[in-house]
């Protein structure tokens, strides 16, 4: 992926593959004799963004910020309370089961826990063939052939067809999870913390696999994570979420080098510094706990923890607006007093992506065969 | 996306595709074989299984094993065990041993039949309630509550007396009364499994409800159902013998261990003619004990999480 | 907690109403008609019709149901055809012996099961443990009536220690000693199954708790075994036990029917058998309703007790 692509992706003349407009997902809180609703947990509270074909949009935030709920609403595992999810021109936020089933082959998900996301009773071959058979895409024999191909594609081999999930390692299982998401040849894949449950060394392999697949199949990703490392590595643009809202949405380099939202700055500060020589620096600590999403603060939801908060922040809700009206490439921020200074940390020196492809199939032989 | 990896950004770029060593991927044993191995470790469960199989064989081959007809009335009634009748005769003059052997047919038929009926009802309702939730769940669970509010045995007694005692009727009645615990069990399991990522994955892959229910949810609820059903067979055998003992189950001349014990309500039989009531009582005890051990073994073997 | 109780009772109302419907329908499925009791084979069709009319049997089932429900609300359970007294009066006479029997059995069962369960939980995989677990299997597997017969044979017929049945010596002076003597055998029969079940719950629940981290912490602090068992483990182990007590009532009633029959104990159980044999349907309906109410209240109390024993339980 090149810088040119980022410019392409953010250019307004391109038609987004997915457009999320003012998405809300509220869970009622019930209490009392007749279980009346006494309030709502605002898991996702007015989120809007677009995803362009071929790009990876990262969503980052602390646990409970609503990033996974947002992901689940997009692929309609949850029905949004309001707002719209426009996928390939159709609003699917209210679609019924029947029409959803058609959309679902184009809109897939990779789950966080590779131990929980594969049915323990089925062999890998059956797990992978099932999407094709359920959608009557092809015959059983063809499905078998496709399963063998896809296993190679994700860096496993056809020996795995007869294995059960419990016989596989976490990394291998996640490859199966990715393979299953690919079976229906989707356009967009929501990756919900796909590497968080894996060992660090395995994380890199799976991330590389995702990148390779993106190039090969022209996939578009929404990559949800609480870890900045993975997000930074894979995303073209990043949305920073806090208490159900997007705080800042900008290209990856902008987020890391020139954070505009105080919360983004704090997140970056909390990210461990791998270089010990750079550790001895001024560092900000996030104070206080995250407020409850059932009772979010007034005004800017971040004002209770923001070191720069002023009177206006307590009263007025900031909208997500362009950081620099003259330069749409800088992204958007929801802050009354956006920062305008380089990151306190040196993220500047770009490190080139290792030359050549991270050949996925090369892994197969190595990984616990 | 070139410029994002900071110097020394450990882990992500630095580690090339290394070997995932968390688990050797040798050909592991199948799930079934592991269950069998665990079961065989449970000594009493093995003994129970052997006894249970012998009982089934006895029931199937009763005409070959029994020395005489269970219905034939001999002139010598109340006869003590001896050469002619190994376990003596009852107060009508029928051979006790032959009746004992034939009675195993009744117990096992009712036991297995009733459990089949209630497992089917309970699983169906439990799946519906758990999967569809909302008002389906409300209705099913309220009906379940109603059935569970009745003292179980009393309701069975009344029902059997209303529709008339017979083998088929008691099987049906026990079957129709005993499903609520299974329905609750299955519902609870479904509620848990429904939230699992592999069911979510099924939904996101656009699978239809029947496929998700029967291919992804049901097989994963089977272990506790199998265990429950095994104990259920033992319970049904006790229930049948109790009903027959009270004269509300299988009626003479058909032989059931329970109705053979009825005679012992006479103090003379109880005090002086042990061969009429001790053998059928022991048979019930042995059968129920054996099945309970099988259930215990299955629980140990099945319910440990497969890893 | 109060809203929770109110909610449970509100949910309970339709359930109990459903119980009355099921009850009424089942009883009305019965082939024999109560009118038969008043009639002889020589009665003319006219007399049959008269009798049916008098008993209200010629009306549609829902009319009879509404009438019956109306009476029920006023505490009128109808009239026992067999005993020729109101059902409420009959139940009143018979309920005390049954409650006595069940209460005594529960006390005996818990007095045996809890100490034994705790004892063997701390000596897992010893001979004592295997012995108790084995006995408990025997206890849950033996049918009440067979155990009852064996007890009568051994303790009444052979040893002559206890009477063979009834709640007191007929025509005798009665008195407490006499009544207790009559109570012993049926209580033991009924208590066997409960304690056999219970001891396994106590044991496994205690084993779970003893393996928990906070017990290991307590041990690491140097607390003695007695202190650990009583202060830290027992309370937590008791929680699942409470549910067993609630579930038991329905089972207990089933056991009581058979036990009362064997020992001719004049309680609700024996009355049930007599009513079935005599087709005394108003009595059967009364018994079923009282029993259902009992089960409902017991379940409610169980859930409340659960919260008392385990502070983690939230009522919502």
Q: Looking at CATH, which topology of chain B would you report? A: MetI-like fold
* Share of helical residues of chain B: 55-70%
The top level CATH class name of the domain at 95-276 in chain C: Mainly Alpha
Indicate the mean pLDDT of chain C. Answer: 79
CATH homology-level superfamily of the domain at 95-276 in chain C = MetI-like
Classify the secondary structure makeup of chain B into a structural class.
Answer: mainly alpha
Number of extended strands of chain C = 0
Average pLDDT reading of chain B: 80
CATH class membership of chain B: Mainly Alpha
Q: Number of DSSP strands of chain B?
A: 0
What's the total helix number of chain C?
11
* Rg over alpha carbons of chain C: 24 Å
CATH architecture level-2 label of chain B: Orthogonal Bundle
Largest interface: A-B, 82 and 48 residues
Sheet having the most strands of chain C? none
Q: So, CATH architecture of the domain at 95-276 in chain C?
A: Orthogonal Bundle
How many domain units of chain B?
1
Question: What features would you highlight for this structure?
Answer:
heterotrimer, A: about 375 residues, alpha/beta, Rossmann fold, eight-stranded mixed sheet, four-stranded antiparallel sheet, 12 strands, about 30% helix, disordered N terminus, B: about 300 residues, mainly alpha, MetI-like fold, elongated
Q: Can you walk through the features of this model?
A:
The complex is a heterotrimer of chains A (369), B (307) and C (316). With 369 residues, chain A is α/β, with parallel strands linked by helices. Chain A has 12 helices and 12 strands. Chain A has helices at residues 3-10, 67-74, 97-104, 124-134, 140-153, 170-182, 200-217, 228-234, 252-257, 262-270, 311-315, 360-366; strands at residues 18-31, 36-51, 56-60, 82-87, 90-91, 107-110, 188-192, 220-225, 237-242, 245-251, 321-322, 332-333. In chain A, the strands form 2 sheets. In chain A, strands 6-7-8-3-9-10-12-11 form an 8-stranded mixed β-sheet, sandwiched between helices. A 4-stranded antiparallel β-sheet of chain A has the order 2-1-4-5. Residues 1-12 and 348-369 of chain A have low confidence and may be disordered. Chain B is mostly helical and 307 residues long. Chain B has a single domain (26-306), classed as Orthogonal Bundle (MetI-like fold), CATH 1.10.3720. Chain B has helices at 31-41, 43-60, 62-65, 96-132, 134-149, 152-163, 167-177, 179-194, 197-204, 209-245, 257-261, 267-272, 274-303. Chain C is mainly alpha-helical and 316 residues long. Chain C has a domain at 95-276: MetI-like (MetI-like fold), CATH 1.10.3720.10. Chain C is 75% helix and 0% strand. In chain C, helix 4 runs parallel beside helix 11 (281-309). Chain C starts with a helix and ends in a 7-residue tail after the last helix. The mean pLDDT of chain C is 79. Chains A and B meet through helix 1, helix 3, strand 6, helix 4 and helix 6 of A and helix 9 and helix 10 of B.
């Amino acid at each position: 992926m090149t810088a040119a692509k980022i410019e392409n992706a953010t250019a307004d003349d391109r038609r987004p593959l997915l457009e999320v407009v003012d998405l809300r997902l509220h869970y009622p809180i019930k209490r009392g004799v007749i279980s009346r609703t006494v309030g709502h947990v605002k898991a996702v509270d007015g989120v809007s963004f677009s995803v362009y074909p071929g790009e990876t949009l990262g969503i980052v935030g602390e646990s409970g910020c609503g990033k996974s709920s947002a992901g689940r609403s997009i692929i309609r595992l949850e029905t949004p309370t309001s707002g719209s999810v426009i996928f390939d021109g159709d609003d699917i936020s209210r679609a019924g089961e029947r029409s959803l089933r058609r959309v679902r082959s184009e809109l897939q998900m990779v789950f966080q826990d590779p131990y929980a996301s594969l049915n323990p009773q089925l062999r890998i071959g059956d797990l992978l063939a099932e999407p094709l058979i359920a959608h009557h895409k092809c015959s059983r024999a063809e499905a078998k052939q496709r399963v063998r191909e896809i296993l190679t594609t994700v860096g496993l081999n056809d020996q795995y067809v007869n294995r059960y999930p419990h016989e596989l390692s976490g990394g291998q299982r996640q490859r199966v999870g990715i393979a299953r998401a690919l079976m229906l040849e989707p356009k967009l894949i929501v990756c919900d913390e796909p590497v968080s449950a894996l060992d660090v060394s395995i994380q890199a392999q799976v991330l590389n696999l995702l990148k390779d697949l993106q190039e090969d199949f022209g996939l578009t990703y929404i990559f949800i994570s609480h870890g900045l490392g993975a997000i930074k590595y894979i995303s073209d643009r990043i949305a920073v979420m806090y208490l159900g809202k997007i705080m800042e949405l900008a290209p990856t380099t902008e987020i890391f080098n020139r954070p505009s939202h105080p919360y983004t700055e704090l997140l970056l500060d909390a990210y461990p510094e791998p270089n010990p020589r750079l550790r001895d620096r001024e560092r900000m600590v996030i104070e206080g706990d995250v407020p409850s999403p059932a009772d979010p603060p007034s005004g800017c939801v971040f004002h209770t923890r923001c070191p720069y908060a002023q009177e206006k922040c307590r009263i007025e809700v900031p909208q997500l607006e362009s950081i620099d009206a003259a330069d749409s490439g800088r992204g958007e921020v929801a802050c009354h007093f956006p920062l305008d200074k380089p990151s306190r940390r040196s993220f500047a020196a770009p490190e080139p992506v290792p030359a050549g492809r991270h050949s996925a199939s090369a892994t197969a032989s190595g990984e616990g065969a | 996306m070139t410029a994002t990896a900071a110097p020394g950004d450990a882990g992500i770029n630095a580690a090339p595709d290394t070997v995932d060593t968390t688990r050797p991927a040798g050909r592991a044993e199948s799930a079934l074989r592991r269950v069998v191995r665990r079961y065989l470790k449970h000594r009493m469960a093995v003994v129970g299984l052997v006894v249970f199989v012998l009982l089934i064989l006895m029931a199937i081959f009763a005409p070959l094993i029994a020395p005489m007809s269970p219905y034939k009335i001999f002139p010598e009634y109340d006869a003590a065990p001896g050469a002619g009748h190994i376990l003596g005769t009852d107060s009508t003059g029928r051979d006790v041993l032959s009746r004992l052997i034939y009675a195993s047919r009744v117990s096992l038929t009712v036991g297995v039949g009733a459990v089949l009926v209630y497992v089917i009802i309970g699983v169906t309702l439990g799946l519906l309630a758990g999967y569809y939730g909302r008002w389906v769940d409300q209705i099913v669970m309220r009906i379940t509550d109603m059935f569970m509010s009745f003292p179980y045995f009393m309701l069975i007694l009344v029902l059997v007396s209303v529709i008339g005692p017979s083998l088929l009727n008691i099987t049906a009645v026990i079957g129709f009364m005993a499903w609520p615990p299974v329905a609750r069990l299955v519902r609870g399991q479904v509620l848990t499994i429904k939230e699992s990522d592999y069911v979510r994955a099924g939904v996101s892959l656009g699978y239809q409800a029947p496929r998700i229910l029967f291919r992804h949810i049901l097989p994963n609820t089977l272990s506790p159902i199998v265990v429950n059903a095994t104990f259920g067979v033992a319970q049904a055998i006790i229930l049948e013998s109790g009903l027959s003992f009270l004269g509300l189950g299988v009626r003479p001349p058909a032989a059931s261990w329970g109705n053979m014990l009825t005679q012992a309500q006479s103090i003379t039989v109880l005090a002086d003619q042990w061969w009429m009531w001790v053998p059928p009582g022991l048979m019930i005890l042995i059968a129920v004990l054996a099945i309970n051990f099988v259930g215990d073994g299955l629980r140990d073997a099945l319910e440990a999480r497969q890893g | 907690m109060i809203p929770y109780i109110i909610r449970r009772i509100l949910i309970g109302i339709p359930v109990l109403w459903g119980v009355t419907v099921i009850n009424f329908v089942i009883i009305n499925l019965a082939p024999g008609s109560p009118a038969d009791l008043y009639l002889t084979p020589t009665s003319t069709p006219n007399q049959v019709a008269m009798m049916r009319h008098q008993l209200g049997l010629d009306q549609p089932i829902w009319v009879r149901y509404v009438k019956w429900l109306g009476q029920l609300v006023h505490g009128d359970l109808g009239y026992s055809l067999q005993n020729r007294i109101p059902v409420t009066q009959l139940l009143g006479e018979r309920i005390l012996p049954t409650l006595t029997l069940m209460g005594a059995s529960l006390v005996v069962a818990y007095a045996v099961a809890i100490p034994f369960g705790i004892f063997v939980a701390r000596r897992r995989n010893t001979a004592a443990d295997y012995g108790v677990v084995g006995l408990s299997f025997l206890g849950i597997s033996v049918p009440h009536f067979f155990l009852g017969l064996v007890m009568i044979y051994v303790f009444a017929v052979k040893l002559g220690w206890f009477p063979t049945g009834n709640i007191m010596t007929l025509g005798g002076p009665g008195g407490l000693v006499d009544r207790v003597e009559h109570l012993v055998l049926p209580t033991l029969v009924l208590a066997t199954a409960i304690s056999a079940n219970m001891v396994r719950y106590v044991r496994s629940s205690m084993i779970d708790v003893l393996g928990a981290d906070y017990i290991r912490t307590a041990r690491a602090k140097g607390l003695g075994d007695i202190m650990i068992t009583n202060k830290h483990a027992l309370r937590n182990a008791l929680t699942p036990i409470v549910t067993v007590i609630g579930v038991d009532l329905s089972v207990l009633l089933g056991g009581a029917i058979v036990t009362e029959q064997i020992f001719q104990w004049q309680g609700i159980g024996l009355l049930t058998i007599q009513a079935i044999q005599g087709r005394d349907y108003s009595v059967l309906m009364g018994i079923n309703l009282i029993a259902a109410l009992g089960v409902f209240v017991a379940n409610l109390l169980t859930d409340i007790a659960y919260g008392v024993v385990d502070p983690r339980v939230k009522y919502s």
